[in-house]
Amino acid sequence: MSVNFFKHKAKLVEAYKDVLDDNSDTDWALFSYEGNQNDLKLQDTGDEGLEELEPEFNSGKIMYAFVRVKDPNTKLTKFILIVWQGEGVPATRKGACANHVKDIARFFQGSHMTIYCRNDDEITPEEIMKQVTKATSNFSFVAPKEDISVPSPVVSSSVYQPINPQREILSSRNDKFWIKMQQEEDARKAEEKQKAVNLRKQEAVEIREREKKWVEARNQMVKQRERDIAEKLRAQKLADDRSDIREKEKAAWQERELQDLRKARRSQSIESAHEAEVLTTQRANNPRAMWAQREKEASSGSRTSSISEQPETPAQQPFYQQQPEAPAQEPSYQPEPSYEPEQSYAQVEPEAQPSDDANQIYGNEPVETTADQQNNQQEPYDDQAGNHNYSFASYTYAYQYIQPSFIYPHLPIYTTKLHIPTHTNIVPRIYSEVPADEPSCSAEALYDYQAEDDTEISFDPGEVVTDIEQIDEGWWRGTAPDGSRGIFPANYVRLL
């Protein structure tokens, strides 16, 4: 909204005319708004100049002052309009009142200049007069009064013109003033130009220094990054070399272990087959047929058969070397003297039930040892030097020790069940038990995992876990890059 002069127009015009009147002592008038309205009113007047006006300005209001002063250069009266905008005035109020300045300057006609002040430093008399001095011009406004002018000269035909000393003095003084002002303005412009040049030079130097520092920092950062990359590549290469060495050593060790296992099992199978072959070759006659013949002879009354009449076999060779040259006597059934044998023969418990292969080697059926036979196993025999009298029971015991599968139905015997696999059964089983070389399973780590105890392994993203055993759906066992072996979660890796 525009400013309103009509509500207090009489007082405004009266104060304005008092300031314009040279005969009046009033040299300033202060105006302000009525409340928050746009009605302009008279605030105060005074006759003691700018010193009296200075404390009247309020920092929370927008005020206008019409002042009459003396120009120190021309000694002429100057009228100035001061626009005061206090620091405490809201910005919206300042914006609304900014459009009122032109209307107020038009209402207070005759002002030589308008000065804007916003704080106490700008409203001091010295600062106001400094602004007035800078703006001094030939134009001077004088309030309406009786005109005391010099009478115009009488027109004559001569070229002579009267001299007006006052006009000449004023003209000369004004010329000097404007020359001085022009010189000051030129000096000010030159100074500002020099300052601008110096400022541009300083900015250029600062920009060059800044660019130089930035280039140095960038080069240092690039070098540091190259060093880091080289260090990582060197560490990765060293880790790969160590991993290759460990893999080669492990493969060589596994190959040696496998060769040793194969050699040991091959040697054991050959020895077992050789033993089986030796045992089978020593059995030239069938013990079942031989003792069937013996039973037939015993039933016909030939109970006096001596041990020397028995046919010799390769397995019985060591026993018959102890027989005497004299004819054998009838076996006696008297109890023989007991003594502690040098070596006791306890019944051997087999590891498993005898197979058909073992029975085929000896050519008989497996026989269970009875309680009577176990009691008779500790029965001693007499082996005296010079007279070798052997009872039938002792002979049976000795012969049964040589032939474990020998059977006599009516006498206590000592039997032993043996399970001797053949060569054809041993060799294929040994070779089938040798573990085959299974392909090694590897996986790449997708996430970082840290072991919680000694049974787990740790790895970082991108590392490779080797020798993986898929022991469970959620947990696998493998070898970490550092050589440790343990379990880890299966969903943390990706099979290669």
- The Rg value, from CA coordinates, equals 70 Å
Order of helices and strands: HEEHEEHHEHHHHHHHHEEEEE
Counting structural domains, the number is 4
Mean pLDDT, nearest integer?
73
Low-pLDDT residue spans: 143-150, 302-437
First-residue to last-residue Cα separation:
83 Å
How is this structure best described in words?
- This protein is α+β, with helices and mostly antiparallel strands and 496 residues long.
- It folds into four domains: 9-134, Severin (3-Layer(aba) Sandwich); 193-268; 287-424, no CATH class; 443-495, Roll (SH3 type barrels).
- It has helices at residues 9-20, 50-53, 91-97, 100-107, 125-134, 165-281, 287-299, 317-320, 356-362, 371-376, 392-402, 423-433; strands spanning 28-33, 40-46, 62-70, 77-85, 113-117, 443-445, 464-469, 475-479, 485-489, 493-495.
- The strands form two sheets. It has a five-stranded mixed sheet, sandwiched between helices.
- A hairpin with a 5-residue loop joins strand 7 and strand 8.
- Helix 6 runs antiparallel to helix 12.
- The longest helix is centred in the middle third of the chain and has 117 residues, at 165-281.
- It starts with 8 loop residues before the first helix and ends with a strand.
